[in-house]
Amino acid sequence: MKLKLILAIAKKDLRMEFRAKHTINFMLLFSLLTIIVFSVALGPSNIVEEVGSGLLWLIFLFTGMMGISRAFIREKELGTLDGIRLSPVDPESLLVGKILYNLLLMLFIEALIFPLFIILLNYHVVGNPLSAFFVLTMGLFGFVIVCSALSALVLNARTRELLLPVILFPIIFPIISISIHALKEVLGGAGILDVGNDLIFITAYMVIMLTVSILTFRFALED
Amino acid sequence: MTQNMIEIKDVTKKFGTNTVLDGVSLQIQKGDSFALIGPNGAGKTTLVRILSTLSKPNSGTVLINSFDINEDQENVRGEIGVISHNTFLYEDLTAQENLEFYSELYNMDKDQAQEKIDQLLRKVNLRLRAHDLVGTFSRGMKQRLSIARMVLHDPNILILDEPSTGLDVKSRNIFYEIVKDLHSTGKTVLLATHDLKELEILCDKLAIMNSGKILLSGDVDTIKEDHGKSLESIFMDLTGGD
Prior knowledge:
heterodimer; A: mainly alpha; globular; B: alpha/beta; Rossmann fold; six-stranded mixed beta sheet; 9 helices; 10 strands
């Protein structure tokens, strides 16, 4: 695995995305519309603090699936995946480069959507918003790693866009449920250390999934 | 003794129960301009994908300049430059950015890559469009840029898989001139095509494939002389006019 290749792949994807905005506009629009729907549905009730972290994860789950899977699928559709495979790039660098791109893309979406969600749903944040942002980011990183790796695994399937959610949900469920719990706690006033066990679980899950992905990705690329 | 640049021994490839390549053996020597011809479904593209390390054979061995495609993929990829009807270019990047990206994948030194990119863009007559998005290019321009991408890392072997598909006559002729020019610098050329005219313009040796097998191979002029017929008649006789 080579850092130079990882950075080259992530840089190329970011440059293309922020130039053409094929994915990011849809991700932002979808997130915004969903926030508005939730805002209208919940009204001025005080259950926002009860269900808010779950709703926020729901937005990121669907937004993420919409955008993250495109990183590999777009290369496949354009035929450029073969262009990369023709060069002496090891599959592991390609995977980590794509994960890095997806992480940065998701971080950008999170930075815009998280404050909007708090404001538009009139969420009464007791804890430190930056801590909540950090906890959410940790969960999203785990989600991005799993989603990126799985989107590569289903690349050669004809029904890849339908198949991805089906195999993603069971695998990602542990991270989402723990992350929702931790986020709710931190927004409600708990400190980072109070949700330390949750964060350790998310980190361990992330490391395991990244290792498995790196070890298996080579086979996913073959004909 | 002439050096073998491509050595294919008894290669078989199956997709499920369908045998696409059936014991294919072939040798292509350094400096050859070799055409692989056959009707659609003959197995040309599958063989090209195996030579390009994009696919693995079920059995048999393939050596590219003595490197085994299964055991030494990184070196094989340094030896070959591939172009097909697919340009492998990003439409949302400029010509310059596309070549810069590929130079990074080939681990080229930044200054050296910049110099080479300038030189290649001039060679394929795209210097003035270097900073335009590839999405705004015509098909012919994209294919010329694709040639620059193919030779960026200075490969010894050029693999062309139906490269002129979709090109108009003018673009096709420019494309042929560039390929001939590259061949004259000592590069080995392997062209997979079903266009016999293209073969006669670019190649001096050929192998005719059908149903995953090599039916005939050798020097183009010798084959024509031995059979006393045009290449088209020989091709039609061997492939049953498929």
